[in-house]
Amino acid sequence: MSSEIREKDHEWVCKFHSNFDRLLASFEKLFSQRRPPVYGDELLTDKEVSHLLKVSRRTLQDYRSNGILPYIQVGGKILYRASDIERTLMDGYREAYRSRK
């Protein structure tokens, strides 16, 4: 790219602004799809939680059935509070230890 001054009607400047506008529109679309937190807590679907925990959706069903993971059921939709997921993970946290010689 040369160091010459570009006018606002120059092809390169117009293309740059066009690409920037498309990028901005993509960000706006992405953020508009984001669900606002409910009572200060984000609700996650089973698909999101299974991806987050790297387990199958069937395993999540077992966690619900066994009382391991709290959930909210609205109609046929299962939702999880992000804080419940974090608390469940921290409850299972075990500190590393070294054996003494």
What's the structural blueprint in terms of helices and strands?
Blueprint: H1 11-33, E1 43-45, H2 46-53, H3 57-65, E2 72-74, E3 77-81, H4 82-91
Organism: Bacteroides stercoris CC31F
Domain Helix-turn-helix: 43-87
InterPro entries: DNA-bd_dom_put_sf, HTH_17
Number of helices: 4
The parts where pLDDT drops under 50 for at least 5 residues are none
Biggest sheet strand order reads 1-3-2
How would you classify the helix and strand content by structural class?
A: mainly alpha
Radius of gyration based on Cα positions: 24 Å
The percent range for strand residues is 5-15%
Number of strands: 3
Overall spatial form? elongated
- Largest sheet at a glance? 3 strands, antiparallel
Distance between the termini: 66 Å
Order of helices and strands: HEHHEEH
Can you characterise this structure?
By secondary structure, the protein is mainly alpha-helical. The protein has two domains: 1-34; 43-91. It has helices spanning 11-33, 46-53, 57-65, 82-91, and strands at 43-45, 72-74, 77-81. The protein has a three-stranded antiparallel β-sheet. A hairpin with a 2-residue loop joins strand 2 and strand 3. It is elongated and about 70 Å long.
